[in-house]
């Protein structure tokens, strides 16, 4: 999507802006009022605030809020090109209005990610307003920790926080995780590794001989919550409990650091990971969906 440089655009529907600080001034209280369902918007804006507006790509990010006539914010979205729109839960009419408004800005949007109902409403509206083909992609479930139940028995080895010496390994595993999930990496792999190493945002599980066997990442704590992401075990090391042990370790670290809530997403097409996280004490919150858009060629 091509977005013209602008300060703020107002309409009767959504208020769009490329000004991160202005967006947060309007939306932050709203996002914090239901932090779990807005976890992606909160973590992405925090990364943009700390790493700069080009953290996720060369395109200019776009933000928006949806408000009542009295100015009360009822919805929010963001887009960091070249990635999908990330949209919080909104009423159907708000999702429809956003699709219409963004179609006027630029009809080359690659997709949307939101709670299941909001994502489908937006996708169908996008199809109507642009003629694009839309297809349901990954279906996800957001989980929240209830009470941590570490694996028993735990695999042999230990957890440790990744350091600068692990930079290339983290970058490689981040790329492999994206390929396994059929997802474009959200950030340059080495930039991602640097950003996580800077605050201790990846825990490795290593075998007794010191070989890293799995990683579990964690976002910055924001709105008193941390989201575990990503969790990855190389294919040749799966089935031995390393991923679960790393997840339990990073979850414990988040709790010990003061997080009131710990969240994570799963791919609903992967029953193994969904069972694993429930055994660790995570409970379902809401289902999300990603929709992919393909522009229809015009003669």
Describe the structure.
With 299 residues, this protein is an alpha+beta fold. It is 34% helix and 28% strand. It contains eight helices and 13 strands. The chain has helices at residues 20-33, 39-51, 92-105, 116-130, 167-180, 189-197, 242-256, 271-279, and strands at 8-9, 14-17, 62-67, 73-79, 85-87, 111-115, 133-145, 158-161, 202-206, 212-218, 225-232, 261-267, 282-294. A 13-stranded mixed beta sheet has the order 1-2-3-4-5-6-13-7-12-11-10-9-8, with helices on both faces. The longest helix has 15 residues, at 116-130. Mean pLDDT is 93; it is low at 1-11.
End-to-end Cα distance, whole Å, is 20 Å
Bin the strand percentage: 25-35%
Broad shape:
globular
Question: What is the H/E order?
Answer: EEHHEEEHEHEEHHEEEHEHE
Number of strands: 13
> What topology, given as strand order, has the largest sheet?
1-2-3-4-5-6-13-7-12-11-10-9-8
Secondary structural class:
alpha+beta
Mean of residue pLDDT?
93
Low-confidence stretches: 1-11
Query: Helical element count?
Result: 8
Q: What share of the residues lie within helices?
A: 25-40%
Q: What is the alpha-carbon Rg in Å?
A: 19 Å
Q: Main β-sheet, in a few words?
A: 13 strands, mixed
Task: Draw up the topology in text.
Layout: E1 8-9, E2 14-17, H1 20-33, H2 39-51, E3 62-67, E4 73-79, E5 85-87, H3 92-105, E6 111-115, H4 116-130, E7 133-145, E8 158-161, H5 167-180, H6 189-197, E9 202-206, E10 212-218, E11 225-232, H7 242-256, E12 261-267, H8 271-279, E13 282-294
Parallel strand pairs: 5-6, 11-12
Antiparallel strand pairs: 1-2, 2-3, 3-4, 4-5, 6-13, 7-12, 7-13, 8-9, 9-10, 10-11
Helix pairs in contact: 1-2, 3-4, 5-6
